[in-house]
Specification:
Layout: E1 28-29, E2 44-55, E3 58-67, E4 72-79, E5 86-91, E6 94-95, E7 107-115, E8 118-126, E9 130-137, E10 143-145, E11 154-159, E12 168-174, E13 185-190, E14 196-203, E15 214-217, E16 222-224, E17 227-238, E18 241-251, E19 259-262, H1 273-276, E20 284-292, E21 297-304, E22 308-315, H2 316-325, H3 331-334
Parallel strand pairs: 6-10
Antiparallel strand pairs: 1-22, 2-3, 3-4, 4-5, 7-8, 8-9, 9-10, 11-12, 12-13, 13-14, 15-17, 16-17, 17-18, 18-19, 20-21, 21-22
Length: 339
């Protein structure tokens, strides 16, 4: 099939495990999963739904830490191999632009991306309802919060790793004040990371059983020479509750509100005990990805059952071929997303 290349810097120390011979899926799990288990640090019962990024030849993690009082906050982690982690025991110390403490009431499901020389962390928080928080850092020592990009209610926000047509671009999933029983992915643009507009619809739920209820963006989109590779979660409501699986699509490089290819099959779904059994069972929730442009390797980080962090692998060729093999687009996928 047609080849595809990742457009990013090489990452020779990306974590990696060769695909098992008996595996027919396009994404395979790390054999030592979960890489983060319960009670990982004092006063934190569970870490899950977290993101990872390279930094100074090592790795930084931004982790959703569920405290023993039931409130989530974001914690920082450090690793030499992106598998074994050391954690800062204190929450990330967010400040306002004047340097005064400005901590969210709670924060969860973070994503992280580098644009130019600045790292941006996004999360879901309380802004008189579920909404998006965002902060920037250059050194992972000081973290300055920016203006909240959207009104409530919104979740699952992530920035593209570069400006597109001269503007910052963010994906998000508008929702309601409950455990949303609906949801599509939208796109918004900004010239200054403060005022957001030019909103566009990107992808909707589909008739495929695993994503009939709602969908939401996962890690920062991965730039390739054929489009933006987007891993996302899809949710179905079963007789035994919600099930979260991982899907994949390719968005247009210059107009990412247009979907070029969308896989009708999930690429990873709850099958292992640590994915099926936990605080919230039957959840695979992607939040982070590492890529190596030289080998085409991708390491995908995902939350497992709201209790653990799992690691899975694929290559850009393997996931691209799988998406094309099971490509299925709807009218709302291919349109500009503006009405």
């Amino acid at each position: 099939m047609e080849k595809i290349k990742i457009k990013s810097s090489p990452l020779p120390n990306i974590p990696w495990q060769t695909k098992p011979k008996n595996c027919s899926a396009p994404v395979w799990r790390y054999s030592e999963n979960p890489i983060i288990k319960r009670n990982p640090m004092p006063n934190v019962a569970r870490i899950f739904n977290s993101a990872v990024i390279p930094y100074n030849d090592e790795f930084i993690g931004v982790f959703r830490g569920e405290q023993r009082d039931g409130i989530s906050h974001i914690y920082l982690g450090h690793s030499k191999d992106a598998v074994n982690w050391e954690y800062d025991t204190e929450k990330i110390p967010f400040t306002d632009e004047n340097g005064s403490s400005f901590m969210p009431r709670y924060a969860y499901d973070p994503r992280i991306v580098m644009i130019d020389d600045t790292y941006y962390i996004m999360w879901c928080q309380d802004f008189y309802g579920a909404s998006i928080g965002i902060a920037k850092t250059n050194d992972f020592k000081t973290f300055t919060r920016l203006e909240n990009p959207f009104l409530p209610y919104n979740r699952n926000a992530v920035l593209f790793p570069r400006k597109i047509n001269g503007r910052y671009v963010m994906l998000s999933r508008p929702c309601d004040n409950g455990h949303t029983a609906f949801g599509d992915i939208f796109l918004s643009e900004s010239c200054d990371m403060e005022f957001w507009g030019r909103h566009r619809h990107v992808m909707g739920r589909s008739e495929k059983w695993w994503e009939t209820l709602k969908i939401g963006a996962g890690p920062a989109p991965i730039e390739t020479d054929k489009g933006w590779l987007l891993f996302y979660h899809g949710v179905v409501n079963t007789c035994n509750g919600y099930v979260y699986s991982i899907g994949a699509a390719i968005l247009d490089l210059d107009e990412p509100s247009k979907v070029l290819h969308r896989c009708s099959n999930y690429v990873l779904a709850p099958e292992m005990p640590y994915e099926e059994q936990g605080f919230v069972p039957n959840v695979c929730f992607p939040c982070g990805a590492l890529t190596d442009s030289e080998t085409g390797r991708i390491a995908l980080y995902y939350g497992c059952a709201d209790s653990y962090v799992g690691l899975a692998f694929t290559t850009i060729d393997e996931i691209w071929d799988y998406i094309l093999k099971y490509d299925s687009l709807s009218l709302t996928d291919t349109e500009e997303g503006r009405r």
